Amino acid sequence: MNKNKKISNDLKLVEKLIKKDISKEKTISGLYKYIFKSNGKKIRARLNLIASSKNLNKNRIKLASVIELLHTATLIHDDVVDDSAVRRGTKSVNKLWTNSHGVLIGDYIYSKAFMYMVDIGNKKILEELANATNDISQGELIQLDAIRNLNITLQKLKKISYYKTGRLFEAAAKTGAINSNANQAFIFNISECAKNLGILFQIKDDLLDYSNNKKIGKPVFQDIKEGKVTYPFFYAYQKANGKEKKILKELLYSSKKIRRKDLELIESLSGIKKTEQLANHYHKKTIECAKKIKNLDIREEMIELSNNALNREK
């Protein structure tokens, strides 16, 4: 069986474990089953399984499940904070139920992840995931600074991208490598590769939000509707003249539907082009890190993930 097929089969075991041992309380089981009826891409769980594939360990599936549970909990909480109506092409928990349901089921999923971590019993893994969870929370709080903040810096946006997305990618790879008793060089190289991959993934998310592609599975122009300054808007605003800056500022403060000419303005000010260049930069960094990984199968898996992240349409 080739490595790719093995990882795909392992992901099915992750799905099975996640759906196991659900509370018999009707409200909890209903919410939980609704959340996990859509399987999603499981990029972070896949990363964890790839990183732990050097030396197969009995806790591989449980650890990958922890990663997926942590990620899912952050998404549910994000939807509450952003008042999002759609997630993965279906109605979000907070829209079908309430914000309170969203917060509490997110907490329930977090707690399940930590119960699995205790079962695994590896202090280094627990420490890394506890730190990562803390950093992700910081990222969400820091992102609040980007709301209608026309003075935000590129450095701050990169920090948000790392904390919000890159950090869990990094932790997924690092804990997988730790779980397989890998050497320090491998742990460092795959962690760096995954971190850059996560930042690339977030940059691509920001780009897709300015797309008319209906395959995405969530509303487009959501960031700008919420007043969030992300890379396309940031680059456009930096290049804009006084009149153009006024129009862009009004977009951030308006609840009106984004028009085609608004997108054309951001495109004409190189907002999309500069963001694409930044994505290419992180793609290059990811590939460079991947090439330092000596295991050929793992190196190729990481390069494939990087190429997919750059070229994805949803």
Describe this structure in words.
It is a single chain. The protein is mostly helical and 314 residues long. It contains 15 helices and two strands. The protein has helices at 3-18, 26-35, 43-51, 60-82, 93-96, 99-120, 123-143, 154-179, 184-208, 222-225, 231-239, 242-253, 260-268, 271-290, 296-311; strands spanning 86-87, 90-91. The two termini are 29 Å apart. The mean pLDDT is 90.
How is the biggest beta sheet arranged? Answer: 2 strands, antiparallel
CATH topology: Farnesyl Diphosphate Synthase
Q: What is the domain total for the residues? A: 1
Shape: globular
- List how many beta strands DSSP finds: 2
List the helices and strands and how they pair.
Layout: H1 3-18, H2 26-35, H3 43-51, H4 60-82, E1 86-87, E2 90-91, H5 93-96, H6 99-120, H7 123-143, H8 154-179, H9 184-208, H10 222-225, H11 231-239, H12 242-253, H13 260-268, H14 271-290, H15 296-311
Antiparallel strand pairs: 1-2
Helix pairs in contact: 1-3, 1-4, 3-4, 3-8, 3-15, 4-6, 4-8, 7-8, 8-9, 9-14, 9-15, 11-13, 11-14, 14-15
